[in-house]
Specification:
Blueprint lengths: L1 E2 L4 H5 L1 H8 L6 H5 L5 E4 L14 E15 L6 E8 L4 E7 L4 H6 L5 E13 L2 E7 L2 E5 L5 H6 L4 E4 L8 H14 E2 L7 H6 L5 H9 L4 H32 L12 H8 L6 H15 L5 E6 L5 H14 L3 E5 L3 H15 L16 E5 L5 H13 L2 E6 L13 E7 L6 H8 L8 E6 L5 H7 L4 E5 L9 E7 L3 H16 L3 E5 L35 H10 L7 E4 L5 H12 L5 E4 L12 E6 L7 H8 L9 E7 L6 H11 L3 H11 L2 H8 L16 H17 L7 H21 L1
Parallel strand pairs: 1-10, 5-7, 11-16, 11-17, 12-14, 12-15, 13-14, 15-16, 18-23, 19-21, 19-22, 20-21, 22-23
Antiparallel strand pairs: 2-9, 3-4, 3-6, 4-5, 6-7, 6-8
The structure holds adenosine-5'-diphosphate and magnesium ion.
The site of magnesium ion (MG) has 4 residues, from helix 12.
Length: 735
């Protein structure tokens, strides 16, 4: 018997095990969970015209023509076997003496499986596809006992294969493991299986690897998706349960105090959503267990004021609140705007300060020693009721007198570990936690990635917002191009402001020109080395000031500037002392200057869909309509162009984030914000398996409530332990 943890060597031998290891398959369990990508119908030929260059494929086809000939070049002999699916053709090329074997084994009319890497070559006027030295396996028409035994099933599994390892070799190894594996206790409780009509685990493995028909494969897939969804949801349910058992200090609202004075001073009415979410949060803060809440709201929905009101409630109750921002620019802005909004309320102990007043401290990584010392002191003594900062807040020596609430702005930039690090700072009980994000995530993703949080949403924007018009501007079109700069001049002429965004800073050493501003974030996505380097802030800014924007007040902003310089530039821009800011993605999130109306994004195709939506959210925040121009040299009908057109066609962040998700692999979605989850999802897709995820979540909550330690569910406990191990292993690898 083979257990699932057993290394593959024992079951399949050293040679095969080594090749499987190259596909990251180490144990019997790994191999069983290496599922076929699809199934070839016995007798049904593969569509050869669909094969893409560079792909490792296994195709079923019929030999049409065999042509061997001597050649003068080495190695002296060339065999070309043409196979067909009835319409398309593929050439199998063999060189040298070894070619006599396939020549003998593949007479015209033979059907078989052929595996190798697809390459294209020029032949006459057309392009032909070929496999050079493919592996092959003939399948005789059923009269051969051998073939009948090996391909007894109607469906032949096609595995994701690789160099030196064919799909049928993998199938052979799987067969051995299937026949000898001891799967242990089924992780899905029997009652759950009955209730959702799920087949047993060993039937499922058999059914997915060696199905008799597609219906059987379907039943197997459904069951195995459940495993993935359920184990994950049980882990999250346990996490929620553990959190619910933690103690936190209740922070009840005060009748009179900072919050009441702040509300009275507020220059606008709260939206209905802001008020409702505010009440949810206020109620959470009164409880003796820590709040763990996610607040979603599209760009410009007005999350800051909701977070600030929660902080004021906590300060009124004698505690402190920390606001964690993903970038220094954003932390500085939050600090500035909170101080401004609070006015005299933020001047405790100073002349003219309010009696309820507090102080607002700022802590960032690159601020000067004096300012930093002051911030640290105010946080530790409790003089600052509100401490705003970047990840510098997470450092060990940052101390609070009584941290009651942590607000994390733009969560998608932070991982769970960081969320946890800040929680550790509270003495006496855990702090309440509010996470805010403008990246609207589909519900199923939220249930998975943020499954341990309660969620609230701001669904409308504050009234009086002006629409943002978005246009894609082809870089090659001179007229459009001139018009873009013209628009900026017009707006500036009316006292309004503009952003020009570039993918790169432009001070990196030659050769190191990946897109993005590495101080702050990952920046744009794929980087094809063959393309010209993305446009850079430090190149574009002088060209604009000497050219089309001559005479306007232009400044640059990027992540590698000194902290004070960033602050100065943003202050001047906010005070309308500058007309145009040429910046990297440092302004992507949160930056709030309502007087800016135009944004020009250079090389827009280098940014992701959600990123563009975020960037665009910087304009149209005030009374005047916003304009966003996406400049690109991506050709029409290209993938890149399609994405830009999508961004231009809608202002709905939810729709765009869905699009973003669809274009990425599932693993990337989870891997980005949550370490370790990647490897646990193979069949489950977050966007399509909503039903399963919802049902699994409900079942998991029920089961954990009844049996928190999983004493009665040893199979499940074992799966969970494996998941946690995997996470830990990946976490360790990263650090
Ligand atoms: P986001 O949700 O993107 O973080 P902000 O909190 O930065 O949005 O709010 C965007 C702008 O809207 C800010 O200038 C803020 O002062 C303003 N705002 C917030 N709530 C309201 C409201 N109820 N009515 C009018 N303006 C509001
Ligand atoms: Mg914000």
């Amino acid at each position: 018997m083979t257990t699932l943890e057993q290394p593959l060597v024992k079951a399949v031998g050293a040679k095969a095990a080594k090749k499987l290891a190259a596909l990251d398959l180490e144990t019997a369990g790994d191999l069983l969970r290496h599922y076929p990508r699809r199934y070839a119908q016995r007798g049904e030929l593969t569509d050869l015209d669909s094969l893409a260059e560079g792909e490792y494929v296994t195709v079923m086809a019929e030999v049409e023509k065999v042509q061997g000939r001597r050649i003068t070049r080495k190695p002296g002999y060339l065999l070309e076997v043409t196979v067909t699916d009835g319409s398309g053709r593929l050439t199998l090329t063999f060189f040298g003496k070894g070619a006599h074997v396939p020549e003998r084994e593949l007479p015209p009319g033979t059907r078989g499986l052929f595996a190798g890497k697809v390459s294209f070559y020029r032949a006459g006027r057309g392009i032909k596809r070929q496999l050079v030295h493919p592996e092959y396996k003939a399948i005789a028409g059923g009269d051969s006992a051998d073939a009948a035994r090996e391909f007894a099933e109607e469906l032949i599994p096609v595995y994701p294969a690789g160099k030196g390892l064919t799909s049928w070799q993998i199938a052979d190894c799987v067969r051995v493991v299937l026949d000898t594996a001891d799967l242990g206790a089924d992780p899905l409780p029997e009652q759950l299986r009955k209730g959702h009509r799920l087949i047993g685990l060993s039937d499922a493995y058999r059914g997915i690897h060696r199905p008799q028909d597609m219906a059987e494969a379907g039943r197997a897939r459904k069951r195995l998706k459940w495993d993935e969804a359920f184990v994950l949801q049980v882990a999250l349910a346990q996490r929620r349960r553990a959190a619910a058992e933690l103690a936190a200090t209740p922070r009840p609202p005060a009748g009179a105090g900072l919050l009441a004075e702040f509300d009275a001073m507020l220059p606008f009415e709260l939206t209905e959503g802001q008020r409702a979410v505010g009440e949810e949060i206020a109620a959470d803060l009164v409880r003796t267990h820590p709040m763990h809440r996610l607040l979603q709201g599209d760009v410009g929905a007005g999350k800051t004021v909701v977070g600030l009101r929660a902080m004021l409630q906590v300060v009124d109750a004698g505690g402190q609140a920390a606001l964690l921002a993903p970038t220094e620019v954003l932390a500085q802005q939050h600090h500035r705007s909170i101080v401004a909004m609070l006015g005299p309320l933020a001047q405790a102990g100073r002349l003219g300060g309010s009696e309820h007043g507090t102080r607002v401290a700022l802590l960032t990584g690159s601020q000067g020693a004096k300012a930093r010392r002051e911030g640290l002191l105010d946080a530790a003594s409790g003089a600052a009721g509100i401490v705003v900062g970047t990840h510098a807040l997470l450092q060990e020596h940052v101390q609070f007198a009584d941290l009651g609430l942590v607000v994390i702005d733009e969560q998608h930039r932070f991982g769970v570990e960081q969320r946890d690090a800040l929680r550790e700072k509270a003495t006496g009980g855990r702090p309440h936690v509010l996470v805010m994000t403008a990246t609207p995530i589909p519900r199923t993703v939220a249930m998975t990635v943020y499954g341990d949080l309660d969620t609230s949403a701001l669904t409308q924007l504050p009234a009086g917002r002006s629409p943002i018009a978005t246009h894609v501007v082809p870089a090659g079109n001179r007229a459009y191009w001139d018009r873009a700069w013209e628009r900026i001049r017009e707006e500036a002429g009316q006292g309004r402001q503009a952003y020009v965004v570039c993918p790169r800073i432009g001070d990196e050493p030659a050769g190191d020109v990946t897109a993005g501003d590495d101080d702050e974030d990952e920046g744009a996505e794929e980087d094809e080395s063959a393309r010209r380097p993305p446009l850079a802030v430090l190149d574009v800014a002088p060209k604009l000031t000497e050219g089309p924007l001559h005479g306007l007040r232009v400044a640059v902003l990027h992540g590698r500037m000194h902290s004070d310089d960033k602050d100065t530039v943003m202050r001047r821009f906010a005070a309308a002392e500058l007309d145009v800011l040429v910046a990297t993605t440092v302004i992507e999130v949160g930056v709030d200057v309502p007087n800016s109306t135009v944004m020009v994004v250079m090389d827009a195709d280098r940014f992701g869909v959600s990123q563009l939506h975020q960037l665009r959210g910087r304009v149209g925040r005030g009374r005047h309509p916003g304009l966003c121009l996406l400049v690109t040299d991506a050709v029409e009908e290209s993938k890149a162009r399609e994405r830009l057109d999508a961004v231009a066609s809608t202002l709905d962040g939810f729709e765009l984030s869905r699009l973003d998700l669809e274009q990425r692999r599932e693993g990337d979605v989870l891997g980005e914000s949550q370490s370790g989850r990647r490897s646990s999802l193979r069949l489950l897709t977050l966007l399509q398996d909503e039903e399963i995820i919802k049902a699994a979540r409900a079942e998991a909550s029920e089961l954990v409530a009844a049996d928190p330690e999983l004493r009665d569910h040893p199979g499940l406990a074992a799966e969970l332990a494996a998941l946690v191990d995997e996470e830990r292993a990946e976490y360790l690898e990263k650090t």
